[in-house]
Input
Amino acid sequence: MSETLPIGEIFSSIQGEGYLAGRRQIFIRMTGCNLDCRYCDTEYATVDSCRVEQAPGSNDFEIYRQPLTFIRLREILEAWTQALPGAHHSISITGGEPLLFAEDLAGWLPELRRILPIHLETNGTLASELEQIIDQVDYISMDMKLPSTAGCGEGLWDSHRLFLESAVAKDVSVKIVVGAGTGTAEILRVCAIIAAVRKKTPLFLQPLTLPDTGCGINAVHLLYLQALASAQLPDVRVIPQMHKLMGVL
Output
């Protein structure tokens, strides 16, 4: 097992997106990503330090040198869960794109899972990497990147389908960020992929959050997209980035 991993942040907050929205989690944010989405609000580039909350939920950070050791991470998580018993639902492994470090995570997750269940947040493009850790993951929040909002082009659809085919072995949900330019064809493409793999998979439409925290899609268009998706799939939900609205991390 690798003794260290490039972790940019460790903090305690409320999950603001998708299936576990409203649950309090311990977030472990990995650095690095294989995509460059237009709306990304995360500093995921490799850095030489790691921000760690001094106490869970305090928003008061101390700085550790990179990379962080497994022993130190486990000490932090054990201290937080002992200090606030029952407060945290799970550990969210997020990024960036955490599956870039799947080989190392395969050694870390069994021990972290002894502390709390594991929730993986991923851009849903690295299916073979997911296979390396899927047995140690309890929840998967998978993004599908729409060209209209992410700007990643049309080349990810096959990657998303392959990823979902692997992810359905676990409790997986799909999230798409929708904006003013999101059209019928994109929604139908997403729904077709989900229906072909497992139709009952929850689909979350997340309105695009603008830099000023405003909404990047009007209510009429959002409701149109919801109705369109709901005609194809049985479980379609609309949830904005709740943590942005609450002003938490």
Notes: The mean pLDDT is 93. The two ends are 30 Å apart (CA to CA). Residues 180 and 218 are 7 Å apart (CA to CA). The domain at 4-246 is CATH 3.20.20.70 (TIM Barrel).
